[in-house]
TrEMBL record:
It is an enzyme of class 6 (ligase). This is glycine--tRNA ligase. Keywords: Aminoacyl-tRNA synthetase, ATP-binding, Ligase, Nucleotide-binding, Protein biosynthesis. Belongs to the class-II aminoacyl-tRNA synthetase family. The lineage of its organism: Bacteria, Candidatus Nomuraibacteriota. Its EC number is 6.1.1.14.
Length: 432
């Protein structure tokens, strides 16, 4: 990692901790590798990502059906899907210090990153987390925490078809947790053991797969752009045949220029009829009165990687002043806080009371509104800039006589005076 990039990652990680976005998992007990906890602003950002995704890909469409399947599934699902046999990563152990690595993460092939010792032969390591169900501790009671949300949709294919009789093409969509026993969790929230996925299984006739593959590629790009991901940092990678997952005939990885390298952000796979066939599921086409196995296009999105790509895309430093002013230029729809409300002086009851009425009105309207009366106004602006709040509203002595407030823009630092009753429309217009 270059020094500049390393500094950017350090800044993001420190901001996330300091301002309540992301904390190390189980921190007071020394942490747990590959797990992270999300604080108040992190939850808000994650919820916004997930809600916007659901709005665009499920509620906004006429051909999509949402599901929320159980995390624990019958082990037969993972046997049939091929995960028991093939969901593996090559694991390498150092012969000297015994530390374990994923083969492709080693800086120098054959040499341990930790102690410089010689590494042994690679062996395959299954990444599914296994646990026991019920009181019996034998292999018949072994279940897995799902490593992808996709199978929860495939196994409910028949249920949804029977309830809703959708015509092809149509999709199932799910947002939920998935778990992977990553050999080397790393790079902050980029590679973690407990992940959240937003996935779509889009069912098509075989002859249409290329058309819908292209369609979903455009949809995924449009989503990234609408979220505010820096599109100059997004690159498409056609996955080589020998690197394709066991279920895929074609995959495009959308890679992002992370400070630690060009890495997968999202994936788009043509899963053929692999999964439905494995689960013995078919589709009865009422129009042609024929029975067949639909093919699947799968756009898949990681919540954590979206979060990190957004942080990296939106982090800016305004260097016009004496000191650099860091701010997160989030889209207002994505920002954890839409606006902050402040009385100019903390201890003036008239200002506080007036500000509180405005705060309550805005909170009822937008929900994500923060009350901020801590420190002087300059400090409040800096704090709100750092967490990406698009607007700060200040109630001062003039407000008491003319019912106008100061509204300050995060990106430009410019302030305007507007009437109290215009605040909601002012924000709504800009949010749209
Ligand atoms: N159903 C297909 C599937 O799971 P994948 O490429 O293994 O495909 C999908 O994962 C997405 O989940 C990735 O593009 C990435 O955004 C996210 N993801 C996968 N493993 C992850 C990990 N260990 N940490 C964080 N995100 C991960």
């Amino acid at each position: 990692m270059q020094e500049k990039d390393e500094k950017l990652m350090e800044k993001i990680i420190s901001l996330c901790k300091r301002r309540g976005f992301v904390y190390p998992g189980s921190e007071i007990y020394g942490g747990l590798a590959g797990t992270w906890d999300y604080g108040p602003l992190g939850v808000a950002l994650k919820n916004n990502i997930k809600n916007l995704w659901w709005k665009k890909f499920v509620d906004g469409r006429e051909d999509m059906y949402g599901v929320d399947a159980a995390i624990l599934m019958n082990s037969a699902v993972w046997k049939a899907s091929g995960h028991v046999d093939t969901f593996t990563d090559p694991l390498i152990e150092c012969t000297k210090c015994k530390k374990r690595f994923r083969e492709d993460t080693l800086k120098e092939k054959g040499t341990c990153d930790e102690c410089g010792g010689k590494t042994g032969e690679a062996r395959l390591f299954n990444m599914m987390f296994a646990t026991q169900i019920g009181a019996v501790e034998d292999s018949s009671a072994t279940v897995y925490l799902r490593p992808e949300t996709a199978q929860g949709m495939f196994v409910n294919f028949k249920n949804v078809v029977d309830s809703f009789h959708p015509k092809l093409p149509f999709g199932l969509a799910q947002i939920g947790k998935a778990f992977r026993n990553e050999i080397t969790p790393r790079d902050f929230i980029f590679r973690v053991r407990e992940i959240e996925q937003m996935e779509i299984e889009y069912f098509v006739k075989e002859e249409d797969w290329q058309k819908y593959f292209e369609y979903w590629k455009e949809e995924m790009l449009a989503w990234m752009e609408s979220m505010g991901i820096d599109m100059n940092k997004v690159h498409e990678l056609e996955v080589k045949e020998e690197d394709l997952a066991h279920y895929s005939k074609r995959t495009i990885d959308f890679e992002f220029d992370f400070p630690f390298g060009l890495k997968e952000l999202y994936g788009l796979a043509y899963r053929t009829d692999f999964d439905l066939k494995k689960h013995n599921l078919t589709y009865q086409d009422e129009e042609t009165n024929s029975k067949f196995v639909p093919h699947v296009i799968e756009p898949t999105f990681g919540v954590e990687r979206t979060f990190l790509a957004l942080m990296l895309s939106c982090y800016k430093e305004d260097t016009k002043g004496e000191e650099p002013r860091p701010y997160l230029a989030f889209n207002p729809t994505v920002a954890p806080v839409v606006c902050a409300v402040s009385p100019l002086l903390k201890n003036k009851v008239e200002l506080r009371d007036y500000a509180h009425i405005i705060y309550r009105t805005l909170k009822d309207e937008f929900g994500r509104v923060m009350w901020d009366d801590n420190g002087n106004i300059g400090k409040r602006y800096r704090r709100q800039d750092e967490i990406g709040t698009p607007w700060c509203i200040v109630i001062d002595f003039d407000t008491l006589s003319d019912d106008s407030v100061t509204i300050r823009d995060r990106d430009t630092g410019l302030q305007e005076r507007i009437k109290k009753e215009d605040i909601v429309d002012y924000i709504k217009e800009r949010m749209n």
